[in-house]
Structure formats: structure tokens, C-alpha cells
Automatic annotation (TrEMBL):
SUPFAM superfamilies: PLP-dependent transferases. It comes from the Eukaryota. Coiled coil: none annotated. This is alanine--glyoxylate transaminase. It comes from Sphagnum troendelagicum. Belongs to the class-III pyridoxal-phosphate-dependent aminotransferase family. PROSITE patterns: AA_TRANSFER_CLASS_3. Its main location: mitochondrion. It is an enzyme of class 2 (transferase). PANTHER family: ALANINE--GLYOXYLATE AMINOTRANSFERASE 2, MITOCHONDRIAL, PTHR45688.
Length: 426
């Protein structure tokens, strides 16, 4: 039996010794993880439908990934890239093989913020332009540069950030002024390039389904039109696949493929390492070459241990056919959530793809009034039933359902039944 500190003691220590900006969703002690489940200090099981914020891709403590990490750690845990090691090269090759077009050159870093920082720098170096465009409601990181790309007041301090970053209208089919017409939102991007930049830009960042923003899938046709405008202005198109990558959307391996576009730079993090600190910037040899004009270095990026983990994740995704699984379980879940929407007026919108879904709660369907308090309360009640979901969106009124990709049909049914139960009792 467990004899270490209990949840209340840990909470007290966090309060005293950790920065108060760190927020807490679940006050239970997450002691152990096994695939889609977490266990607290009393051995109680929770269905983790948020995967540590979409980070655990193939499952908590997936045995293949754990074995790869343990084996590599016993042999050699760390070198920097100034030593020759096979793991980083083999893994880069395997990752590049998953990319379309000429996206063949990888730089490994440790977090999504770092990856987007690097993508921004590459775009500026390559184009010789400075202006960068992102979408409102985007989340691209918390470093000073990426906080500037992020477009949520919730996540911004009043410190210097985001020089040269502009935010365009978000092609949000549910809340946006042009509904699901991607081309009309793209007009706003064209207008911004003309009116607020020198006419030449460095790049355009986007998620294809906004994660922190509440599983907002960009209006159809938007990315094709936007990429065209960006490229005519000399800019690079940068897809942030930190949440949407690796088959999670079910229909495609990469989120951007759902809109039929091929970016110039792709940034990866979170699910890439099933929870290990690993991230990557993938681009073409021509764009990558611009960084060779100076030395560049990252101490931990692509170390043997994380490379072994990342490579193992790719193998598991294949051997367990996770993309197909995300498609079938995701479709079932969407179907059931839409039926739940018919039953409960509180659900204003159900959206997403595969295992990247959002359920937006409103107190008035016509006015789309965010049901923020209800979302917070229901999240607590779900937790009491042993179900952990995420919360997001500008108004914190969207349930984010992004479980480890091993989430089963039965888990999906249990989740929806639990939601039905707590909503019925509200
Ligand atoms: N991009 C997206 C789409 C994200 O969701 C996040 C993290 N929530 C980041 C970038 C930043 O990643 P990190 O926290 O690893 O810096």
C-alpha cells in the first residue's frame, strides 16, 4: 500500500513551493497511469479523456515506449548533438518519411513553444521579412515570442511580446461572423497583409483544429485560400501540429491534410513523445539551410532517450493502427455526442474529428451565451464519476475530449453516459 504524501499534503506543498501561476484541474493525486486510465493514491481508477492535455498519444506508460526508454537509458541516456548517435538520425528519417512533399529535414527541441520559436525565426531568416500572422483564438506557446502568437487574453501578460505579429479573424464555423465560409475569412487575411504589413510577410501560423481554443476546426477551404495569399506575399505557411498530429484526427495523419494543403514548416510536440519532453520542427532542405549561416545548438533536443521514445511512438502508431482506431472510435463518439446535444439544450455545439473533439456549453442556443459556471461544475461532477475531461475555449465553456489514442468504444460510451448523467442532474 502507498505510504507517501496524500493529496492534501501535496496541495499544501505546491501552494508553498511552486509558482502560483500553475493551475490545477484535478485535485486527485495522479499516482499511476496505464494506457487510458489514471489511478489515485487509493487505487481509484479514472478514465483520462484529456491525456495530460493531449500529450499521451499511445497510452500512459505504453510498454513499448517504456521499454525503448529504459533500454536506451541503460546504454546511454544523454549526449548532445555534438556526439554521433544513431537514435537521432534513425528517428529523424522515420519522422521525415511520414511527411508529405519535401518536408524532410528535422530539428529536435524540447517543447512546442521552442518549436514555434524556431519556426518563426526560420521564416524570418528565409524570407527576409518580419511580419508574422496568426489566428485569433490560437495557442502556440508561452515563450515571449510565442505568447505573441497566442491570441487569448487568458494567456497573456502585459510584458513585451510578439513584435511583428498580427492576428486575423478566426475562421470559427460556430462563433465566427462568416459561419463556415472559409473564403470570406481569408479575405480578412488578404486585407491585413495589404493594410498592416509592408505587403511582404515572413509567415502564417495556424493549428488546423485549435486545441486550447476549444477544439475549433477551421472553416472548410480556409487553409487553401490562406496559403495562397500568404505565398503571394512571400510568406511561409507554418502548421502547428502539436495537438492534431500523429493520426489523432482519424481521417489523416496530419491535421493540415484535412484541408488538402502542404505547409512549408510543421511544428510537433506533446504526443510526439507520448509525454517525454520532445518536440520538432520539420521543413524543406532549402528552408532548413538558412540556419546554417550561424551555429545553432540545443542541449537536450533529440537526445538518445527522447529519440528512442519518439521512434517507439511511431512504431506503436503503426502496429496498433491508431489512426484508423481514432477514426472509428471518434465517429462513434461524435455520433453519440450529437445525440446528447439533441437531449440537452445546454450543448450548443459538438465538433472536431477523430479523438480531437469539443462540446461547447451555452445557456442560450440563440445568443450562444457561454455556460462557464455550468462547465466548471459539470467537470467536477464528471470527475466524481471517474471521468477526466479537459476544458478550454476563450470562455472556458468547452469540454475538450482528446484521450490517449487507445480509448475504446466502451470508454466512449462510458464518457457519454457520464456526461448525460451529470447534465440530467444539473
Ligand atoms: N502549440 C499548441 C497547439 C499547443 O497546444 C501547445 C501547448 N498547449 C503549444 C504549442 C506549446 O507547447 P509547450 O507547452 O510544449 O511549449
Amino acid at each position: 500500500p502507498y505510504t507517501g504524501p496524500r493529496a492534501d499534503e501535496i496541495l499544501a506543498k505546491r501552494k508553498k513551493f511552486l509558482n502560483p501561476a500553475m493551475f490545477l484541474y484535478y485535485k486527485k493525486h495522479a499516482m499511476e497511469g496505464k494506457m487510458q486510465y489514471l489511478y489515485d493514491e487509493n487505487g481509484r481508477r479514472y478514465l483520462d479523456a484529456f491525456a495530460g492535455i493531449v500529450t499521451v498519444s499511445v497510452g500512459h506508460c505504453h510498454p513499448t515506449v517504456v521499454d525503448a526508454v529504459v533500454q536506451q537509458t541503460r546504454l546511454l541516456q544523454h549526449t548532445t548533438t555534438i556526439y554521433l548517435h544513431h537514435a537521432i538520425a534513425e528517428y529523424a528519417e522515420a519522422l521525415a518519411q511520414r511527411m508529405p512533399g519535401n518536408l524532410k529535414v528535422v530539428y529536435f527541441v524540447n517543447s512546442g513553444s521552442e518549436a514555434n520559436d524556431m519556426a518563426m525565426m526560420m521564416a524570418r531568416l528565409y524570407t527576409g521579412s518580419f511580419d508574422v500572422i496568426a489566428l485569433r483564438n490560437a495557442y502556440h506557446g508561452m515563450s515571449p515570442a510565442t505568447m505573441g502568437l497566442t491570441a487569448h487574453s487568458t494567456w497573456k501578460y502585459n510584458v513585451a511580446q510578439g513584435f511583428g505579429v498580427h492576428h486575423v479573424l478566426n475562421p470559427d464555423p460556430y462563433r465566427g461572423p462568416f459561419g463556415a465560409d472559409g473564403n470570406l475569412y481569408a479575405n480578412d487575411l488578404a486585407n491585413l497583409v495589404e493594410s498592416a504589413t509592408p505587403g511582404r510577410i515572413a509567415g502564417f501560423f495556424h493549428e488546423t483544429i485549435q486545441g486550447v481554443g476549444g477544439a475549433v476546426e477551421l472553416a472548410p477551404g480556409y487553409l487553401a485560400a490562406a496559403y495562397d495569399i500568404v505565398r503571394k506575399a512571400g510568406g511561409l505557411c507554418i502548421a502547428d501540429e502539436v495537438q492534431t498530429g500523429f493520426g489523432r484526427t482519424g481521417s489523416h495523419f496530419w491535421g493540415f491534410q484535412t484541408q488538402g494543403v502542404t505547409p512549408d514548416i510543421v511544428t510537433l510536440a506533446k504526443g510526439i513523445g507520448n509525454g517525454l519532453p520532445l518536440a520538432a520542427v520539420v521543413t524543406t532542405p532549402e528552408i532548413a539551410a538558412v540556419m546554417a549561416q550561424r551555429l545553432h545548438f540545443n542541449t537536450y533536443g533529440g537526445n538518445p532517450m527522447c529519440s528512442a521514445a519518439g521512434h517507439a511512438v511511431l512504431k506503436v502508431l503503426d502496429s496498433e493502427q491508431r489512426q484508423q482506431h481514432c477514426a472509428s472510435v471518434g465517429n462513434h463518439l461524435l455520433h453519440r455526442l450529437r445525440a446528447l446535444q439533441d437531449k440537452h439544450a445546454l450543448i450548443g455545439n459538438v465538433r472536431g474529428r477523430g479523438l480531437m473533439l469539443g462540446v461547447e456549453l451555452v445557456t442560450d442556443r440563440q445568443a450562444k451565451t457561454p455556460a462557464k459556471a455550468e462547465a466548471a461544475l459539470l467537470m467536477e461532477h464528471l470527475k466524481d464519476l471517474g471521468v477526466l475531461v479537459g476544458k478550454g475555449g476563450l470562455y472556458s465553456n468547452v469540454f475538450r475530449i482528446k484521450p490517449p489514442m487507445c480509448f475504446s468504444m466502451q470508454d466512449a460510451d462510458f464518457l457519454v453516459d457520464a456526461m448525460d448523467h451529470v447534465m440530467s442532474k444539473l
